[in-house]
Specification:
GO biological process, one term: methylation
Pfam families: Methyltransf_11
CATH class: Alpha Beta
CATH architecture: 3-Layer(aba) Sandwich
Distance between the termini: 28 Å
Helix content: 25-40%
Strand content: 15-25%
Family: Belongs to the methyltransferase superfamily.
Radius of gyration: 18 Å
Bound molecules: S-adenosylmethionine
Number of strands: 7
Protein name: Class I SAM-dependent methyltransferase
Organism: Actinomycetospora lemnae
Number of domains: 1
């Protein structure tokens, strides 16, 4: 885990919120437990600007609490999702009581956490039988022009392609209080302005941690590529949400 990359997003919080895709809706349906009459309490952990928080609201989940360490990201979230409980905190130190939520969802953020401390904390705040859901949403490298854009933005295509083609497993620490995990991959397309597709590369941590000069170069290359490959009209960009879930054991082991 690279701390500079982990906290790089706040510098572009507004662009991040505008340009990053929400998770594919079908993934949320798969991740969330069948809810009772009152619906589940869901923790959006490492919530960023609230892309997942808003998707949950759109899916009909009414009780969401968002935890996010970065002030700039949290400010956008609070503005975009008035009425949602937004707390400063980290995955390693979650500011919630024991056994207080039914689901913990982590969107494009698990890889920034300390897995030992985070899984213990998530086990603490989850009610027995509750679900831990990890998801990553990214532009689908199976489409050649997207793969070329990901290359320009220095994204790790080996990982992304493996996930899309072969699925994936998450290794939680051996003493984490969770049953076995399962994964699924979901696909959808999101309409975006061509200019925004190119600008999206500027929200990737692989680009955010470059020098200003290098970032400008990536943006120029991404714009040229998008203009050549898809033109200037809005484009239906293929996205993948890779999702993994495991349920909290009833007792510590
Ligand atoms: C790629 S963004 C994902 C944001 C949001 N979940 C989404 O899907 O758009 C990663 C987020 O994880 C947050 N983050 C980094 N380290 C964290 C930690 N240790 N605990 C909680 N959040 C963390 C960052 O501040 C950032 O907002």
């Amino acid at each position: 885990m690279n701390p500079a990359r982990a906290r790089s997003f706040g510098a572009v919080a507004d662009d991040y919120d505008r340009l990053r895709p929400p998770p594919v809706l079908a993934a949320l349906r798969w991740l969330l437990p069948a809810s009772d009459a009152t619906g589940p309490t869901v923790l959006d952990l490492g919530a960023g600007t609230g892309l997942l928080t808003r998707a949950l609201a759109a899916a009909g989940v009414t009780d969401v609490v968002a935890v996010e360490p970065d002030d700039a990201m949290r400010t956008v979230l609070a503005t975009q999702s008035p009425g949602v409980r937004v707390l400063a905190g980290t995955a390693e130190d979650v500011p919630l009581p024991d056994a207080s939520v039914d689901a913990v969802l982590v969107a494009s953020a698990w890889h920034w956490f300390d897995p030992d401390r985070a899984s213990a904390e998530i086990g603490r705040v989850l009610r027995p039988g509750g679900v831990l859901g990890l998801l990553w949403t990214f532009a689908d490298p199976a489409e050649p022009w997207v793969a070329a854009m990901r290359h320009v933005g220095r994204a790790d295509d080996r990982d992304a392609t493996t996930v899309v083609e072969a699925g994936f497993a998450i290794d939680l620490p051996a003493d984490a209080p969770f049953g076995p995990g399962t994964s699924e991959v979901f696909r959808d397309r999101t309409w975006m302005a061509a200019e925004d597709v190119a600008a999206m590369t500027g929200t990737w941590s692989s680009v955010l941690t470059l020098s200003a000069q290098e970032r400008a170069q990536v943006h120029r290359e991404a714009r040229a590529l998008v203009a050549a490959e898809v033109g200037t009209d809005p484009v239906a960009v293929p996205f993948v949400t890779a999702a993994w879930r495991a349920f909290r054991r009833s007792s510590e082991r």
